[in-house]
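Entry 14. Ran structure prediction on the chain below.
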Amino acid sequence: MAALRLAKRRSTAVALTLLTLSLALLECSGPGQGSGVDLITPSRAAKVVHDYWSVNEQALMTYNTGLFGKVQASPLLDSQMADVKAARAAGDPALKSARPLTKVTTYVPHQQGYPAEFVALVETVKVDASGTPTNDAIGFYYRFGRLSEDASWKANFYVLASLDQPSRITVGRDGFATMLPAGDSSYVVDPKQMPGSLARYLNSGISSGSPEGPFAPGHLTTDAVTSLRRYRDSMAKLGYAVDVKYQPAQFFDAYKGVDGRAVVLFNLQSLNKIAVPDGVHCIVQPSDNLHRWGGLVPPGSYSQLVEGRLLQFIATDPEKKAGTAIDVPAYVETQISAATSPADPACH
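Output, structure tokens:
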């Protein structure tokens, strides 16, 4: 973390024909034209993703933040706008060319009313330091939502996906996913309570060194706590006081996973304070390296920096049984705000 610094199944020709006809009927039927008609189908969802990707890549190639507003909603929009602002300030190159969509997998629950939503696993390629797409694979989970019939589909969440061990969501024989109800107590943690549970875990770990909560060891749990404490202690030796606090933010959805786990999408916010209480030292943001404290911090010398960060997570929550624990395999973190206090004139 940054202070802790996203089957095919063959059937018979007859079955394929029937499936094609049924999907075509769904596409032609408008919302409300009869009970049981889905507002969004997997094939339509895939088109939504491709349309989104075209606009997203154009925005990244031009740093045109107005384009993001056409296809994104908060909190993803907030983090994207902050990210572009920081990249511009730091002089980071824009994306040189659009990244290819190598594969799109949609997870669409049955829905007959608004707001509607679905999740997509987007597989593409990484980008090097010059902004040029490489041949190395990378994946993201995106969540798309549509508030009403008059609104457009917009992405409001994304997180890295481990392509070696993705958090697979179950897809039924009809091609649809299963969204779990909020307040399901059959899992280790009620999925809706996941933001609060992880925030308490991280805060208790930073405070005591022994995090409290039903999370499995990993790079975003035990390792993250260790890294945070090491960062705080090393900064203290240099004369800085560091305080990191996590707050629960939004629970989005929980889907039924292929192994019986709940695949949970949620986010946290963190407030990180770095101060120089002795008045002798100061926080220096060099003009030629804004990455030191983040691109939202302008060049200068300061006595205190308070930054807000958005952390978007995916977790897999097993059924409640002895010895089971929650895995947190992936996240994306973005600096979304930064406030500074003037330094003592004599600081160095």
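Residues 1-34 have pLDDT under 50 and may be disordered. Will compare against last week's run tomorrow.
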